[in-house]
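Batch manifest line 162
LIGAND: heme C
JOB: complex structure
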Amino acid sequence: MKPYLLLFSLLGLLFGACQPSAATETETTALSQPVSGGDSLTALLFQSQCLICHGVGDRSHEELLAPPIEAVKRRYQFLYPERDSFIAEMTRFTLNPTAEEARMYGAVSRFKLMPKLAFQEAHVRQISAYIFDEEMEKPGWFEAHFLEQHPDGIPDPGPAGP
Ligand code: HEC
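JOB STATUS: finished
ARTIFACT:
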């Protein structure tokens, strides 16, 4: 993501937090409703809380801070093709990352375990649904690299293979 976009997202969050307008209240209420991914608040949360590390933007493969979110999505969709279990498992890990629960072994050894951050569960559930439902950004080099790493099509099969 471009830096100005990020700044814009963060400003948007701050602004939203300081100005409890009717619109903000509606959106907050929506977060406690059963999950439906694609509202604009979720997109903003996703950008500011996840893409800050999982975003690719102009970064080359060597400059990444974390696996691209598309790679995370493929791994989780491979393991949990059902939307509900995808959301549940992604939320579980994101709220409390542990090496035992990690499913992206290559990423853990390259980037170290994802840090435990102060996310709200309702937000993470919304974001996980958003990741499942929406198209994620893919850098130009992504598909070629993915094929090279996973010639059998299985995303990150782990130390003992698929
Ligand atoms: C401070 C940087 C950082 C932020 C912010 C971050 N992540 Fe991560 N995340 C990582 C790194 C590094 C990894 C790769 C290591 C690992 O798998 O634990 C990772 C891995 C993951 C994985 C795969 C875990 C596995 O191995 O099974 C999921 C799912 C994930 N992140 C979800 C999220 C979501 C959702 C958000 C936003 C709510 C988020 N992350 C925010 C750094 C971050």
